[in-house]
Specification:
Length: about 180
């Protein structure tokens, strides 16, 4: 799944957000009852975790819906109205760089956007221009991605909050 793994990637980068530690790191950064749109809803794991914490998913999309109530759409075709009153996008997107970079640019131009992906990305040259849109980086650490596995992934993860306007250097929040 990561750059140090010999395992074949899962089709369409479908890695469910099954590890509750992912959401636990994000919760202190969300206002109570945050209304959000989930553009890569997958099997609904992230929606379930956020819902259990009192947050409200106003719209859910995926290119390959895997549970009821998810509309088949590509996140790159969404407009602000498709968020249906959400104040944020929150998702665990595919980590494929071309798609990820397009997603950061597109969604963050519409609403503040929280994305969960590898922490190492922020330290790469390819992140340069997009990091100008980054407001926060919230360290998560290594997460479990494969149901039934005893092991976590090999890459540390972080939540990134992107917005349209460049705001200077992002704030970094280490693991608690």
């Amino acid at each position: 799944m990561g750059k140090r793994s010999a395992f074949a990637r899962v089709e369409k980068d479908f890695y469910s957000t099954i590890d509750p530690r992912a959401v636990a790191a994000l919760l202190p950064h969300l206002a109570p009852e945050t209304r959000y749109c989930e553009p890569y809803a997958g099997a609904g794991d992230l929606i379930a975790h956020l819902g259990a914490a009192g947050h409200v998913c106003t719209a859910r999309y995926d290119v390959d819906p895997r549970f009821d109530g998810v509309e088949r759409r590509c996140a790159l075709t969404l407009g602000r109205a498709d968020a249906r009153g959400a104040t944020h996008f929150i998702t665990n997107p595919p980590w494929t760089r071309d798609l990820l970079h397009a997603l950061i640019a597109h969604l963050s131009a519409l609403l503040p956007t929280w994305l969960l992906f590898d922490a190492d990305w922020a330290h790469t040259r390819q992140a340069g221009e997009l990091m100008k849109r980054c407001r926060k980086v919230v360290s998560v650490g290594r997460l479990k991605w494969i149901p039934g596995s005893q092991h976590t992934g090999k890459d540390n993860c972080a939540w990134y909050l992107f917005g349209f306007a460049p705001l200077g250097a992002p704030r970094f929040y280490g693991r608690a």
